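ok posting inputs for the 6-O-phosphono-beta-D-fructofuranose job
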Amino acid sequence: VRTLGVLTGGGDAPGLNAALRAVVRRAMQYGIRVLGIHQGWNGLIHGRVEPLTRYSISGILPRGGTILGTSRVNPLETDEVAERIRANWRKYELDALVVIGGEGTLSAALEMHRRYGYPIVGVPKTIDNDLCGTDMTFGFDTALSVATEAIDRLHTTAESHDRVMVVEVMGRHAGWIAAGAGIAGGADIILVPEHPFRISEVCQILNHRKSLGRFFSIIVVAEDAHPHPDEDFLTPEEKERVFQHTRLGGIGHLLARKIEELTGIETRVTVLGYTQRGGVPTAYDRLLATRLGVKAVDMVRASEFGCMAALQGMRMVSVPIEQAVSCIKRLDDELYETARVFFG
Ligand code: F6P
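and the output
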């Protein structure tokens, strides 16, 4: 392999720059030239490519985001797009490609490899930690830290005002961020997509806390958490909104309104949103991203195409990308049980 392309696709995650730096530095050791492709697959479609050298990656390790930019563009959208990619692949004399992405980007990478034989190695990233085949994705630890700090801060204001604070966190269809940050931040109730909740049970816990003299409460709710389908306390319109929504989010506001209606306790909502994805990566995410970047280049040299670098236990391993994208990694039962110990 003489020329290696690298791109970052999907939503950004803290640690992407650390991974890029690692790919370049490992490739340099082998005398491989690295071309950075801008804005995910878009850069390969439109020929937005730049050589990544020791100098272009200097100082990026602690920076959030991605110096290459990212997008959710699908490289398989039309035959014309596929043809442009083929032409640019030849033009830039690429011998292999490292694709750093989440479920959507890695699925496309796998399809490109299967359908057209592109020599591609994947690197998993997402703050949601919902990819199979790897024990953890980088970005998750930073999102946890941001959410935990927010919960700490909300505790003091909740306590001062005797309020219920609802904190809505990201995580897509999985409850890893909610459960992790909720436990670390000492939340009184944690609601996750894997376990539909009952509004009556939430209100019962809040009233019980009040009867014990705990006049404030913190509820962490994952953006895709939802009540039971037969929930008594939702109007038909509210049910339709909750169960047919296509965009994630909004559950925090609905829940807060219901709590105020049913308990009379003053309730406020904080949606953490993109703060969980931005800014400086934690040491753990920098370390994990760096190890994955190094491993990915080693896999390129070993021709392990169609595979992804992954963390299993304490070790870096190579797994088929298929494994990562064939399922959503649901929140672990043990972690959920641990969260439930502290309800109320
Ligand atoms: O997958 C990461 C994530 O931040 C999810 O937690 C969230 O649901 C989604 O991306 C938001 O996507 P977008 O950046 O397209 O708004």
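notes: Residues 11, 102, 126-128, 170-172, 223, 248, 277 surround 6-O-phosphono-beta-D-fructofuranose (CB under 6 Å). The CA atoms of residues 17 and 67 lie 7 Å apart.
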